[in-house]
Every structure is written in structure tokens, then in C-alpha cells.
Amino acid sequence: MIGIRRPTLIMVLVSLFALPSSVAAQLDNGNIEVNVKNVKIDGKPVKLSRKRFYMFAGGLKENAALLERIKVAEITSRNCYYNGLKASDQYICWLQSENCESPFCRVVEPRYLDAKDKQHVPEFLEAYNKGLKLFNGRAGIARDWLITNMSDDLVNGYYRQQQKALAAILGGIKPFQSAMTDTAAIRTIFIDIPFAAGSPPKAKYLFSNVLPIEIGNKSYVWSCERDVEAGKSVTLNLARTDRGCEVVERELKVCNTTQCAEAK
Q: What is the pLDDT of residue 253?
């Protein structure tokens, strides 16, 4: 049996390195960078960090039905969702200050656990105190496991709601890929976009965040088409929406009118 396996393995390796040109062309993938660094709203720069974008086959015309669902989708704003949970003003402001959707998006600094600080967050302090009891007064562990001691609705509820909204908007369409912008809010990259043997070396794709990104009292969905070429890396700059882009801008319902000192 050993004498049979070895030559069989060698034959497989040889066949992989001796692919005919028509098959090798399938490996000549393309890449695209969606650049969000210089995006501005009302002339002011905005930070689009940790925001997910989706890639769909075809351009604006081919995805007309999807774009229409994006335009008419009823979305509950972050403000209204957390206000509905009767979350504290401090918690809502903490999320808003860095455009977060859940407590996972940033570190909870010690000052937010200090009851003497005006900006302390009651939900964090309650979870921290619960942790102190669970972990025999070990403050470090209580801080590290802070989120696990919070209400599940405060931690994961908004994400679940967003996923339901996403499924309704997609209407059964499966994105080709999805990728999230980096924490520096510079870009996200879609890699290894395949081109099958015999197909044109260029294909049109649609890139969209699909779910509205909240900025101030408005929400925005960018949907831009771009040609991707086999074996090349190209860039889609969201700051330039003059060609091949649709931007859906909508007023958000405001359920909590607290003025947040840290809001950016």
C-alpha cells in the first residue's frame, strides 16, 4: 500500500504545478479596496470604523430590486432601540461617542465605572459590581468579564435586530463577500475575487453597506458599482460618489433627546 500511495501523491503534485493555461486563469483573482478615509457629511469628516460592507455580482442596474428595498426599509435607530430598553442616558451617549452599536466596539475605561464621575455608565457599574461578587473582589477579572455580566439585550439585542433587518432587505440574495472597515476608518478590502477560465477579465460588482450607518440624526447607505479586473487591485473611494454611486440619506427618528457631551 505504501508503494502505491507515494507515486499517487507525486502525480497529484505534478498535475497541480502543470495546470493548463485555461485552468490556471481561474487562480488569477482580483482585489478591491473600499476606501472610507476621506468621507465627509455636510463638509465634516466622519469616521466609518467597524462598518460592514457587502459585495454583490452586477452593478446598479442589475441590483435595482435590492436598491429599492434599501430605500424603503424601516429601520429602528440605535437611539430608539436602546431607549426602548430604558437604557441610561450615559450608556446611550457612550455608544454614540464613537458610533458604536454594542459594548464590544471599544474598551470600557475605569472612569465609566466610577460612581463619582458624572459620565459613569450605570449599566457598566452594575455589571462590574456583580463581577466583584462573582470573582471574590478581584477587580481586574471583574473588568475583563464586564460585558458577560450585562443584560443580553444591551449587549446583543441590537445586533440581532440588525440581522433581521438585513435578511429582509437582502430578500434571499446572497452577498458575494462581506468585509468590515478597520478601526482606523481607512478602508476595507475584498480579496481573491475569482475569474473563471474563459470569462471576461473584467466584471462589475456592487459594494454597499446595506444597513444604514447612523451619523448625527441621519442615516446613510452607500451603494457603488465598480469594475474589478483579473489580476489587479483597484480602489473604490467612497468620498467620490459622483459616478456609479447611489447614496440613500434618511432622517432618523429620535427617541432620546439627551445632549451627549462626547458626541462626535
A: 86
Please say whether the beta carbons of 165 and 121 come within 8 A. no
Q: Does residue 160 surpass a pLDDT of 80?
A: yes
> Please, are residues 142 and 108 in contact by the beta-carbon 8 Å criterion?
no
* Cβ–Cβ under 8 Å, residues 34 and 238: yes
In one-letter notation, the amino acid at residue 137 is: G
Q: What is the model's pLDDT at position 204?
A: 94
Of the candidates 209, 208, 100, the residue with the CA atom closest to the CA atom of residue 158:
100
Count of Cβ atoms closer than 10 Å to residue 40 Cβ? 9
Give the span between the Cα atoms of 52 and 214, in whole angstroms. 13
pTM of the model: 0.82
Beta bridge partners of residue 173, listed in sequence order: none
Q: At what angle do helices 64-72 and 158-170 cross, to 10 degrees?
A: 140
Mean pLDDT of all residues in the chain? 86
pLDDT per residue as tens digits for the range 12-63: 333 333 334 434 444 478 999 999 998 999 888 998 999 999 999 999 999 9
Look at strands 245-251 and 218-229 and give their pairing.
antiparallel
Q: What is the dihedral of CA 33, 232, 204, 236, to 10 degrees?
A: 30
Contact 145, 135 (CB under 8 A): yes
Cβ-based burial of 92 (10 A; exposed 0-12, middle 13-18, buried ≥19): buried
What was the pLDDT predicted at 250? 94
| Cβ-based neighbours of 142, under 8 Å, separated by 6 or more | 128, 129, 131, 132, 134, 135
Nine-digit cell string for 152: 443580553
